[in-house]
Design a protein that fits this description.
Length: 95
């Protein structure tokens, strides 16, 4: 079994948000039950954007930002590559 997460859930693991405890609990539960965690291919870019905004808002320091990235990378989240249709759409907008 696997679940697909988005960047907001992952960012909540390292940014103090109202749902951070619930996010951490769910990730821990999935890991303990051997459930594979997957995310869209651009997860890191999306998370970095969220972390940058959190840093600008004073929720994270520069040191916190680096530690947060390290923590997120240790989760070993499987990336889901874009579908052929998504790739074709992206290619046509870049032409």
């Amino acid at each position: 079994m696997s679940v697909v997460v988005d960047a907001n859930l992952i960012a909540a693991l390292v940014i103090p948000l109202p749902y951070s405890d619930a996010a951490a609990s769910k990730i821990k539960e999935w890991k303990q039950n051997g459930i594979e965690i997957s995310a869209p291919f651009l997860l890191e870019y999306e998370v970095i954007t969220i972390l940058r905004k959190a840093s600008a808002a004073g929720l994270l320091t520069g040191k916190d930002l680096l530690q947060s990235l390290d923590k997120i990378m240790t989760l070993r989240i499987q990336k889901i590559p874009p579908t052929k249709k998504e790739q074709e759409g992206r290619d046509s907008t870049n032409s």
